[in-house]
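Shipment paperwork, digital attachment
Item: protein structure file
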Amino acid sequence: MNAERGINKIEQKRFKPTFEIGNLEDTESMANFYAVSKIVENRWGNEQNENIAADIKNKKIQLDQELIDSYKKIRELSNNNDETLSWLAFAVERDEETQSCIRDLMVKHKDFNEADAKKLNFEFKDFYQKIKQKINLKELIEAFITTDIDQRKENLPKLRIKVDEAIKFFNPQNLKIEKIVYLPTNPLEKKQSGGGVEIGKSFYINAENGNEVNEIHEFLHSIINPILEKLKLNEGEEKKILNICSTEELENYEYPISILTEKIIKIYHTGFNIENKPTEDKLSERIWEFFEEYINSGISNFEEFFLDNYGMILQE
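Attachment content:
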């Protein structure tokens, strides 16, 4: 037992979050921001709802130069990072606690210092007020989102079965998250995309409606991210990850720790069973073998087994 990691069976708190489906207000600000982004950059196609996207495009909404300049400024301040801007759009009309959590994420994961994170947060809020003077998509998106919410509520019991299987498999302990919220679909989001953000004791998930792989993948970030954040890879270990991962992952992820995080989640898939066994690259095969070792170890907590034995994945 490793006391430094705080793994104490007497004090362990089991992960038993509640599950909710979000509401229109959770998505409206993101849709408004995405609309401006698409208009300014003329990036159309592959949206979750292409009819709504076409309606917005065909309206030929005229944005004044001040708003266009503000958009370009916040994109530059974000280092052209779409995920950062998505976080800010989600949080823009929420309370200061939420804003603070987003700034912390920017510092922790996006290489911002605190001053620059505050500056971008302030500039984005000012920019969003300008958006609201030009665009109000509520009437256009409300019916779509209402249907989306109803479908998600109907499908939640079935999804919970798979989610509960994942919780049982990884058996996370002492997570501060108490609530999982699946957000309604942003109609202007790309298909086959998703993400998650932790705000206080809640984890908000943007996942494609009815796409079980995507819904479980994004949920698993609430479990796997905190584990991998405790891992400090040395330079040699980082090189090994880069040497055995796929070309696609080298192109999509900047850091070796991000590749490892995504790969663990991807290999679990919708459950650890033979139909999901990977063959695409060495890292995938190593993680599958690591899962087998975990199951056979008799240790019921994935974090404990992983932090003690992750070297198995990287061995020659």
